[in-house]
Amino acid sequence: MNSKLAGVVAALALVLVACGSGQEGPAGGGATPDAAAVIEIGSLYEPQNLDNTAGGGQGVTEAFNGNVYEGLFRLTDAGKVDNLLAKEYAVSDDGLTYTFELRDGVTFHSGKALTAADVKHSIERVTADDSQSARKSNLEVIESVEAPDDGTVVVKLAHRSVSLVYNLTYVWIVNAGAKDLATAEDGTGPYTLGAWKRGSTLSLDRFPGYWGTPPANGGVVFHYFTDATALNNALLTNAVDIVTSQQSPDALEQFTGNPDYKVSEGHSTTKLLLAFNDRRAPFDKPLVRKAVSSAIDDAKLLESIWAGHGSLIGSMVPPTDPWYEDLTKVNPYDVELAKRQLAQAGYAKGLRFTLDTPSYDPHPTAAAFIKSELAKVGITVDINVITADEWYSKVYKNHDFAATLQEHVNDRDVVWYGDPGFYWGYDDEQVSEWIKDAERARTPEEQTELLKKANRRIAENAASDWLYLYPQIVVAASNLSGYPVNGLNSQFYAYGIKKS
Amino acid sequence: MKGRHTFAAGCVLVGLVLAVAVVSLVWLPYDPSDTTGGRLAPPGGEHLLGTDKLGRDLLTQLMVGARIALTVGAGSVLVGGVLGVAAGLLAGFATRWLDDALSAALDILIAFPTLLLAMLVVAVREASLGSAVVAIGLAMSGVVARLTRVLVKRVLAQDYITASRTSGTPWPRLVTEHVLPNIWPTLLVNLALQLGLAVLAEASLSYLGLGPPPPNASWGRLLQEAQATVLTAPLGAIAPGLLLVVLVVGVNLVADGLRDLADPTRRSSR
What we know:
Strand content of chain A: 15-25%
Largest sheet of chain B: none
Order of helices and strands of chain A: HEHEEEEHEEHEEEHEEHHHEHEHEHHEEE
Order of helices and strands of chain B: HHHHHHHHHH
CATH topology of the largest domain in chain A: Dipeptide-binding Protein, domain 3
Distance between the termini of chain A: 53 Å
Shape of chain A: globular
Structural class of chain B: mainly alpha
Oligomer: heterodimer
């Protein structure tokens, strides 16, 4: 490279970052929905493959859950569980036998009719030894799945499981005879897979043989971007109609106050955690964890990163979980308190630890903030930036860390504090018992009571520091309606979206 | 004379950045980790260039960044220069097969992308200022070594070297008395050019999160952090970008000037 070229590269670096604002938006349009219109969806999450039991990731849930595949039940955008492929179900008195009656007239995209054998196969796919499903452990309670006739499925459990029906919302019913589900699909949903151009788009076409209400649109195309700025520019230039979730508040300014766009803020289930390794000194002492929690001004961090969006939680449970309780006062932001607690724990002179920080946003920014906050109480933080892969092997698998930052996206995931083998190693017999009993509860009320207790207790012991809950911000062209605003667990039902 | 003006202009630009870096050692407007400034405060009285997302003063970050850019630039030139000149001398003096082997190794090193090499270094060590210096220095050493080798060969082909060798001068003396004095002007120009490239390489590494970890305010990291807020607070991206341009253009002008001054053929041709 010669000297002039070097100069050009420097200038390019500047231009690349500075560019990216076009102000034209779509021209409003009439009010009549067009049932043939194709909805263009912009997303940052391309599937790794098309199988949610083989590491398809968040992207395949977003594109396929409820759209291409359906479960026996559906988790609505509001967090309610509805019957879907199950017409009705009955539970035995001891709570160990569930009998599901399947809906009639359901066919797979390949034309085959849905039978109980397909349901059995689908459930067993998730619980299989080689399954990579995130829900696998929730379904370990299942002892057997039987199909006495084509329209009935009987599931027997090892013990009561009050969340079984909820957990079944994530089990996709696939054709038992289908092959190679990582690159093709055979579901029962309102859409079939059109074409998947890796690195670019994934299109879904209407399924003419759908058993239920047909989609309100003519099909959808997911457009995948690796960069949020490029994604927003696509929305500004009309290349996409809607962006599934905004990851930075600063891009919002170009949409708010512009009549061509609608901005909605719903509830997410994504929490940013400062997770301690509770097995190891100094964080094996609850007082030290509480001191760190109290030394960090969460409100200011949230304001820095999300500029007024999002909320504080004070524990692992987000407001959309039934056992939510406002626990933000348990470890209040109080620098003096933090100093006293540190001294009490034997660290009056301060301490030093390494914070393993994933290299992607918002972790490095949050780490820099935490470092500066903790310096005020005499704690020195060494920031160690690592990739997502390194995080998985070093922190998640080998538990080789002192503290780390991580986003936890799922709802109802407070139960991980009942598992001492989980990466953060929180080991509290009482909490484990409550969480175990909650799952075996007879009624949802009983479950809620127990999980509330567990949640309060982990907050009192500062098992982790729950920094904040992400907002779920959807920006859409104003001629669009009927799209999901909460996107719980990264699902994105597209069949109700109307374009006029 | 053209060379002299170019050189002077380059010195002014580099001197500017150098001065900022030196001042940052003894005085900064704010503590670099002071987050009291408010989110993305606009430029004004309290914060001359405004603040970033966390409320840190941008001017402070830029001053610290100047220090990091120059440290990495100079550090990697030192590493690359020492390694490269040593390898180049060895290849230049070596017998046929060793020379061939070294040249092949250098070709591979040069063909290896700097960023990939940096990722390897970071994987083995960890992301830090030192790793960045080692990675960039290593990548640079290939280019320096190849140039050194050619220059050494050219000098060694001269008649007076043959005369000196026949009279029994040992090779270390050949190096210090004849080779180095003849090749250093060309090497110096090349090292100056490499410094500019090293500054850019550090910025790219930091942009990708492979450079010195936060809160080190490297310009590349500032650019990366400002990317999401470029519409609301454009100065956060423009300022570090401009400084990069100033430093790299400055270094290149110095190199051009040096070449014109050092090269007698250019000196006479005006």
